[in-house]
Design goal:
The chain is α/β, with parallel strands linked by helices. Helices cover about 45% and strands about 15% of the residues. Strands 11, 12, 13, 14, 15, 16, 17 and 18 form an eight-stranded mixed β-sheet that branches. The protein has a six-stranded parallel β-sheet with strand order 3-2-6-9-1-10, with helices on both faces. A hairpin with a 3-residue loop joins β19 (about 860-865) and β20. The protein is globular, with a radius of gyration of 30 Å. The termini are far apart. It binds a DNA duplex through α5, α21, α28 and α29. Its EC number is 5.6.2.4. Keywords: ATP-binding, DNA-binding, Helicase, Hydrolase, Isomerase, Nucleotide-binding. It holds the Pfam family UvrD-helicase. Belongs to the helicase family. UvrD subfamily.
Length: about 900
DNA sequence: CCCTCACACCATAGC
DNA sequence: GGTGTGAGGG
């Protein structure tokens, strides 16, 4: 319990009220007041809706905050307001965010509003997971853990599951551990324990052993004194349900609850919140209404916002009108709630974590869950130009099932650029062109810090990194290949973990034989078996084995050394400063020497990373605190001291804004991602569209969308078509870049036709949308081979006809699909061949459909990108071709034509 | 029994 | 382009 005392004094003073506030916050707030009306500085400059959201401190409040409407400002000001008016102590506010970044930013901004000193005392501001850890450390024993439990990352989890699958005698190839890890995640996201999962789900894995595996997994975690990410929410929920007294403590404790990004909460997070937010009273709720909602909420929301400006006393839905929203949660009872000061902020249009179990429904159902809720809409956008906003609004309007906010801005500057749409030949040209654009902005005195490239999938990042390295352009990758995921960091952390928690077998297994000590699979198995048989951790088992004569001299000596090392380090844990200890561990284990002796190119970088790791430990109190940070944060914090372009995924861009934003890779299959369509169907597509919306609304002034005609996926060049989202942008707000000719002389990339007509007229066209739907529906292939399938070939053929009709010409479908080649000098031959291929179009499609390949080794062929070459090998429809100029490449047979 | 190298197979997004 | 697995050498 030590370490948690900071808020203890208030624990038993549930009724501490403004008058009793001893902290001097109120006084400080008074000092901060300056206006004649007594309006504190921190409230100045808020618009009426924002101010209402800040000042409606009592009762449930839902703030529907569109992109760029000042959501974070409202949240932070609200907290500042609660503190400054002495409504609660910092320790009595529970504020939950999704990302560490958001939590950090909130802390900082509250600090600015009311003074640093007042925020340090906000121990319960953090991510769901970090707060979960805190709760769980306090009550670990109620979940069968010790308070020093370790948190496993995805990698550990998969390895553990693999062991269990093998232990069950199942084939781990047929039943991949990764798949089961995903299933586990889904279950835990729904708050389901092994006995609560659906029978069908339980049976669907490992010859019906799903449930059994789940149980075995949880048992194993317990013996390892570990938990996974899901447990950080799942355990507290179970504790709250099983121990009402514990829950009550927190009910007394938290006077105000605030939740950021409420649209991203999953069922488990929702349960967790409800348990904390609901103070059950005696009278049971009458009646039962199924959870259908939306219209009611929307209507109410509109009514609210229309009259909300009038007064700060919100017209609230009377409690009596309460409709008992959701099906009762287990163990929670169906009770009427007393008013809860919970404030959730979110935007249904930015819900992009469905794949992680997020339920948009949570936000749509808010007023049913919390009767009498005040719903406030923030629709005034302060971030983007009218063009950007117009493009984003028009795009998102293609979604059904939304509240339907209308963002607006007063901004009307004729100087503002429209949203630029660009085409490039392939991903390399895309990277080159974006690099050039960035440099051009730089010459106009734009900071690199104000620019970002937002990609759909992280593999897209490499092209930009490569390009920027050659240009010498500073960049930073956010949330990319993460620091902690690096081999050397994971190894080092494994050493530390074993020292901190001797029961962490997974970490132990990782490093027993690092550096190589001659302990192979056989020895490790023996340690494993001994540990299991004696029910002790592997480290102890190793020590035991080292003293027995069951091993050959060599491994025995090695084990003895390992065991002695860890014993020594564990002893030093309490007495030695942790950074020093960490260095000692890496030295004495021979780990640093291992890399010093390594002649490979990466070795110096790895040593550098290890130093960085040690450096970053300094900020933490202890080794344990550091390990927890690593487990939860997962991303190395990079200083923003340097001017650099940011590269990140669209997902990690949520909540951020940049002056200039580049959105590359708007192609069917990549964005919307084929897997999202395959797995999620229509709702999958809508989530992708919301992701596109998030991307568009990150930009303040300049926005550039790119698509390419050729992209390399899994080492194969694939032809691609522009994303349907490109078509969904409103013509009035976009500007088609018409000079793609700086590289290779492609001339007008749109083949002379206007962009819209080239694409079949987009919105008003008779075949646009449905044509794309066909592609999605008929195509059974996975992303990697989508474009080799008969369905795509057909779609392509249809497309050609359609476009031809539109253009009134009959030329190669490749040409107008991609839109290149008209004036191409460098690829002049390509044009002819492409045309030639078109004439054979039907034949090619047929051959792809019927037979693996119509080519023979030795055939001379032409490829649009690589030119002429000879086929060196054939593997199904994959050809290995020795190109005259480009060298050996593997390509799909659909993309070459006989010469 | 362990280590190294070549090969197969694979990659949406992240707390 | 990265990682996990298998065969062969030491």
């Amino acid at each position: 319990m030590s370490g948690f005392s900071e808020d203890m004094p208030f624990f038993d003073e549930p009724n501490a009220r403004p008058a009793a506030a001893p902290s001097g916050i109120a006084a400080r707030a008074m000092a901060a007041r300056s206006g004649q009306n007594g309006v504190p500085d921190y409230l100045k400059g808020l618009n009426p809706e924002q101010r209402l959201a800040v000042e409606t401190t009592e009762g449930p409040v839902l703030v529907l905050a569109g992109a760029g409407t000042g959501k974070t400002r409202v949240l932070t000001t609200r907290i500042a307001h609660i503190l400054a008016t002495g409504r609660a102590f910092p320790s009595q506010i529970l504020a939950v965010t999704f990302t560490n970044k958001a939590a950090r930013e909130m802390k900082q901004r509250i600090g600015i509003l009311i003074g640093e000193g007042n925020v340090e005392g906000m121990p319960w501001l953090g991510t769901f997971h970090s707060i979960g850890v805190k709760l769980l450390r306090r009550h670990a024993e109620l979940a069968g853990l010790k308070s020093d439990f370790t948190i496993l990352d995805t990698d550990d989890v998969v390895r553990l599951i693999k062991q269990l699958i093998q232990a069950e005698g199942l084939d781990d190839k047929r039943w991949p551990a990764k798949t089961f890890a995903q299933m586990l995640d889904n279950w835990k996201n729904k708050g389901l324990g092994p006995d609560e999962i659906a029978e069908g789900d339980a049976r669907s894995f490992g010859n019906g052993k799903g449930r059994q595996l789940y149980k075995a997994y949880q048992e194993r975690l317990q013996t390892l004194n570990s938990c996974d990410f899901g447990d950080l929410l799942y355990h507290p929920i179970r504790i709250f349900r099983a121990y009402p007294d514990v829950l009550k403590e927190y009910h007394r404790k938290f006077k105000y609850i605030l939740v950021d990004e409420y649209q991203d909460t999953n069922t488990a997070q929702y349960m967790w919140l409800r348990l904390l937010a609901q103070r059950p009273q005696s009278s049971p709720l009458e009646g039962e209404v199924p959870a259908k909602r939306a219209e009611g909420v929307a209507a109410e929301g509109t009514a609210q916002s229309s009259n909300s400006t009038a007064s700060s006393t919100a017209a609230r839905t009377p409690p009596d009108r309460a409709s008992p929203g959701h099906p009762p949660l287990k163990g929670e009872g169906n009770r009427r709630s007393s008013p809860i000061n919970i404030c959730c902020v979110g935007d249904d249009d930015q819900s992009i974590y469905g794949w992680r179990g997020a339920e948009v429904d949570n936000i749509l159902r808010f007023d049913k869950d919390f009767p009498g809720a005040t719903i406030i809409r923030l629709e005034r956008n302060y971030r983007s130009t009218a063009h950007i906003l117009g493009a984003a609004s028009h795009l998102i309007a293609h979604n059904e099932g939304r509240f339907g906010k209308t963002l607006f801005t007063d901004r009307d500057d004729p100087e503002d650029d429209k949203v630029h749409v660009h085409a490039a030949w392939d991903s390399e040209e895309e990277a080159r062109a974006i690099g050039d654009a960035i440099e051009a902005y730089q010459r106009q005195k734009h900071n690199l810090n104000d620019m970002a490239i937002l990609v759909r999938a992280s593999f897209q990042m490499r092209a930009f990194e490569d390009r920027f390295i050659t240009l010498g352009l500073n960049y930073r990758v956010i949330g990319g290949p993460r620091f902690y995921e690096r081999l050397e960091i994971r190894d080092a952390l494994a050493f530390f973990r074993v020292v901190a928690n001797g029961g962490d077998d997974l970490a132990f297994e990782r490093i027993v034989n690092v550096p190589k000590r001659g302990l192979g699979e056989a020895t490790i198995r023996q340690i494993h078996d001994t540990a299991r048989a004696m029910r002790i951790p592997m480290l102890e088992a190793a020590a035991t084995l080292a003293e027995s004569d069951e091993l050959k001299p060599k491994p025995r000596a090695a084990l003895r050394e390992v065991a002695a090392n860890f014993e020594r380090w564990q002893k030093a844990l309490e007495s030695t400063p942790h950074t020093e200890l960490a260095e000692t561990i890496l030295e004495e284990s021979g780990y640093t020497d291992m890399w010093k002796n390594d002649r490979s190119a990466e070795a110096p970088g790895r040593l550098e990373n290890l130093k960085e790791l040690i450096r970053s430990m300094e900020e933490y109190e202890s080794l344990r605190a550091f390990l927890e940070h690593v487990a939860l944060v997962m991303e190395a914090e990079q200083g923003e001291s340097q001017d650099a372009v940011s590269i990140m995924t669209l997902h990690s861009a949520k909540g951020l804004e940049f002056e200039t934003v580049f959105l590359p890779g708007w192609e069917e299959g990549l964005f919307p991602h084929q897997r999202a369509l395959d797995e999620g169907g229509r709702s999958g597509l809508e989530e992708e569209r919301r992701l596109a919306y998030v991307g568009l609304t990150r930009a303040k002034k300049n926005l550039h969308i790119w698509f390419v005609s050729n992209r390399q996926i899994h080492g194969l060049w694939q032809s691609t078509i522009p994303s349907r989202f490109v078509d969904e942008l409103p013509e009035t707000h976009i500007d088609i870049a018409d000079s793609g000719n700086s590289y290779g002389g492609y001339g007008n990339p749109y083949g002379g036709g206007s962009f819209a007509s080239g694409r079949g007229g987009g919105r008003q066209n008779p075949y646009g949308a449905s044509r794309f739907d066909n592609i999605g529906a008929k195509d059974q292939g996975s992303f990697s081979n989508t474009y080799a399938t008969p369905g795509w070939q057909r779609a392509q053929a249809n497309r050609t006809e359609a476009t031809d009709r539109n253009w009134g010409t009959r030329s190669g479908h490749q040409v107008e699909r991609i839109g290149y080649g008209e004036t191409d000098s460098g690829y002049g031959a390509g044009r002819t061949s492409v045309k030639g291929r078109t004439i054979e179009g039907e034949l090619v499609a047929k051959s792809v459909a019927d037979t693996p390949s119509a080519f023979n080794v030795g055939d001379r062929v032409f490829h649009q990108k690589f030119g002429n070459g000879n086929i060196a090998a054939i593997d199904g429809n994959k050809l290995t071709i020795d190109f005259d100029k480009a060298g050996q490449k593997r390509v799909l047979d659909g993309f070459v034509a006989p010469v």
